[in-house]
């Protein structure tokens, strides 16, 4: 009986550690979308690593966006103009590297605009997870609206 209890306790602690680790990894991602929704450029600046890369896959190839331009564009919005709803489908880690895949649906001023998927690469720097690389797709067809 003691062995079963000890094994259950051990496996439970592993599960808790994984959940805690995942919530730390998710934090900058969730803060990114919270900052967008609230048009909070100060919060937005905290989620990216210094040399972060932001890209979108378009029909013509890959478009790179300057992080400072992105932050500036968000600061010009009003609260609740931008609402990107995500579903975290996978988190993979190796030391200070994490990869996160999030399908999303995007709403502009309350109206559905488009959907797609985000692929995040995060790095842990000075104890905090930061978005180093973000690439996304955008489409208007075959969309599943997320709540």
TrEMBL record:
<protein>
    <submittedName>
        <fullName>Nuclear transport factor 2 family protein</fullName>
    </submittedName>
</protein>
<dbReference type="InterPro" id="IPR039437">
    <property type="entry name" value="FrzH/put_lumazine-bd"/>
</dbReference>
<feature type="signal peptide">
    <location>
        <begin position="1"/>
        <end position="17"/>
    </location>
</feature>
<keyword id="KW-0732">Signal</keyword>
<dbReference type="Pfam" id="PF12893">
    <property type="entry name" value="Lumazine_bd_2"/>
</dbReference>
<dbReference type="InterPro" id="IPR032710">
    <property type="entry name" value="NTF2-like_dom_sf"/>
</dbReference>
